[in-house]
C-alpha cells in the first residue's frame, strides 16, 4: 500500500530536549516536504527536498533542520524545541519536483512542547 | 504575508445543494493550483487541480474554476453530500517560473459542513 508514515503520532516533550520526527515513504517519490498546521493559519511549509541531498527552506524554517540522505526518508529535527513549536506536523511526498502531481500526506504528528 | 487566501473559515450547506469554496491569491507567478481535503485526525488528501492554461477542470462532482485576471479560484461540489464535510485547503505553486519552484503555498482552509 502506497503510504507516507510518520512517527511518532503524538509527542509531549520539554523545552530544549532535542527530538526527531521521522517520515518515510514507499513510493520512490523524489519530492518530500514538511508542514505545520496551526489554528487559523492553515498549512505552512517548513522545509522541502527535491531529491537526495537537496533540501531547501519553506515559509517557516526557523528552529528546524532536515536531512535527505536516502530517497525514502526525510526526518524533521528540532534541536532545541520551544513552546511555539507546539503544532500538528505533516510530512508529504510526491512523484517529482513538479508538484502539480498529487502529494501524499502522512497521518500527522501532534507535538506539544512544555 | 499570506499569498493564498481563503476568506471564509466555514461554510454550511444542505445535502444535495451546491457548495462553493473560494480562494484568492496574490502572486502572479503562481501557475498551478490544487485543492486538498482534510478530515479530523488524518492528513490532507488531494482532491483536484488546475493549471493556469485552463479555466476549468472537472472530476465527477468536483469542478474547479480559475479566473486569472481576478486571481481567484473556486471549488464547486455538486451535489454536496454529508461525507464531504471536511476542511478544504486551496494551494498554489509556481511550476515553471521563479525562485519559488518547489514551494507550495496553502490557504488557511474552509470548514465545510453538509447537513442532511
Short summary of the structure?
The complex is a heterodimer of chains A (114) and B (116). With 114 residues, chain A is mostly beta strands.
Task: Please explain how this structure is put together.
The complex is a heterodimer of chains A (114) and B (116). By secondary structure, chain A is an all-beta fold. Chain A has strands at residues 4-7, 10-13, 19-25, 31-38, 42-51, 54-57, 65-66, 76-78, 87-94, 104-105, 109-113. In chain A, 0% of the residues lie in helices and 50% in strands. In chain A, the strands form 2 sheets. In chain A, strands 2, 4, 5, 6, 9, 10 and 11 form a 7-stranded mixed β-sheet that branches. In chain A, strand 5 (42-51) and strand 6 (54-57) form a beta hairpin. Helix content of chain B is 0%, strand content 52%. Chain B has strands at 4-5, 10-14, 19-25, 32-38, 45-51, 56-59, 62-67, 72-77, 86-93, 105-106, 110-115. Chains A and B meet through strand 4, strand 5 and strand 10 of A and strand 4, strand 5, strand 9 and strand 10 of B.
Features:
heterodimer; A: 114 residues; mainly beta; seven-stranded mixed β-sheet; 11 strands; globular; B: 116 residues; six-stranded mixed β-sheet
